[in-house]
């Protein structure tokens, strides 16, 4: 860019055709950045940044001067753990207020789904039956605590909406709880996650995937929850120990679960969870970033790194999110 040419970038994904998904949105920034597929790059040493999602293990290797690996979404777990990512490359995520609002609305739906056992009404609709339920069948919202694992961008957006619906919200935090609680209570410190689970009739996971959080939704956590509680899994598939969830549902320890993310995506068509009436399956649909905003934020980040500035959307690579 210093010589007036656009900053060179490359699409790197082992799972998605990023050019097809984002190419037209980056076209609006073509005077400042140029993104191409790996096979179109003649001089890999000129590539400064990558737009990336689920990169293959050696995806970054051909680009010795790569300064930035930009995720197309909020999560960066597949990028920060990629073995070929240069040690000094900055990794960015997308921060989209609209994405937070979408996530909050989705979580609100799951809270109502489990709190009011909406499957009951869907089943009766299928049979054309007018089956009303007594208000005493539900725990009053004010007595139905919703727990949050992950009190970051997504967790705060969810807390704002769920507290407004009249449910007490408890969030797990690792350090001192924030002063501005907005009606949220906190469990802090080492065993914050288990303590939060123990208070939660409905437990929502929006943790990032790190070494510390992989497999965190497991038998120990389910056994800490009140009997008949529900799990809402919106983080990453690898947070969940699948067999432990099946056992917790079979024993009645958990009454139900909503699963939006899976360790294998797409969830195979013959997977039993599709047909399990205790589970609500959605296809990693809880929220998404606007591609217009992705292009604008990644373009800004590319210009920042070339100018020696740290982009606002940079994550802490050592933390893994
Ligand atoms: N299903 C979907 O459609 C969808 C959409 C968007 C995002 N997601 C998932 O949601 C995740 C979170 O997104 P975000 O934007 O909210 O991320 P974020 O702003 O980085 O927030 C992550 C939060 O998790 C906390 N955390 C990290 N490790 C923890 C641990 N071991 N114990 C307790 N808290 C811990 C962090 O606490 P500190 O403040 O202490 O660092 C931070 O508050 C993403 O990484 C992605 O996996 C899913």
UniProtKB/TrEMBL annotation:
Source superkingdom: Bacteria
Domain (D-isomer specific 2-hydroxyacid dehydrogenase NAD-binding) ranges: 112-286
Coiled-coil parts of chain: none
Keyword field contains Transmembrane helix: no
Transmembrane intervals: none
Record keywords, A-Z: NAD, Oxidoreductase
Pfam family, any one: 2-Hacid_dh_C
Protein name: NAD(P)-binding domain-containing protein
């Amino acid at each position: 860019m210093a010589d007036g040419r656009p900053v060179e970038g490359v699409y790197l994904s082992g799972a998605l055709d990023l050019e097809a998904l984002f190419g037209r949105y980056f076209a609006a920034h073509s005077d400042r950045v140029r993104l191409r597929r790996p096979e179109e790059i003649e001089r890999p040493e000129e590539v400064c940044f990558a737009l990336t999602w689920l990169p293959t293990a050696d995806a970054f290797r051909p680009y010795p001067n790569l300064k930035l690996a930009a995720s197309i979404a909020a999560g960066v777990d597949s990028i920060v753990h990629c073995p070929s990512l240069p040690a000094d490359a900055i990794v960015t995520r997308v921060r989209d207020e609209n994405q937070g609002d979408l996530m909050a609305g989705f979580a609100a739906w799951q809270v109502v789904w489990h709190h009011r056992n909406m499957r009951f009404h869907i089943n009766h609709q299928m049979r054309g039956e007018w089956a009303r339920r007594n208000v005493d069948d539900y725990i009053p919202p004010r007595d139905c605590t919703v727990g949050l694992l992950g009190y970051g961008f997504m967790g705060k957006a969810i807390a704002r909406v769920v507290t407004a619906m009249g449910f007490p919200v408890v969030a797990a935090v690792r350090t001192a709880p924030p002063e501005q609680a907005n009606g949220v209570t906190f469990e802090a410190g080492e065993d914050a996650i288990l303590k939060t689970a123990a208070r939660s009739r409905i437990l929502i996971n929006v943790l990032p995937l790190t070494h510390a959080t992989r497999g965190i939704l497991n038998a120990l956590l389910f056994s800490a929850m009140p009997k008949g509680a529900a799990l809402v899994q919106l983080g990453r598939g690898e947070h969940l120990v699948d067999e432990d969830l099946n056992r917790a549902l079979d024993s009645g320890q958990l009454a139900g679960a909503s699963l939006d993310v899976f360790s294998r995506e797409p969830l195979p068509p013959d997977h039993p969870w599709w047909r399990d009436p205790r589970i609500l399956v959605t296809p990693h649909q809880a929220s998404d970033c606007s591609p217009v905003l992705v292009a604008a934020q990644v373009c800004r980040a590319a210009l920042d790194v070339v100018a020696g500035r740290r982009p606002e959307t940079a994550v802490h690579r050592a933390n893994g999110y």
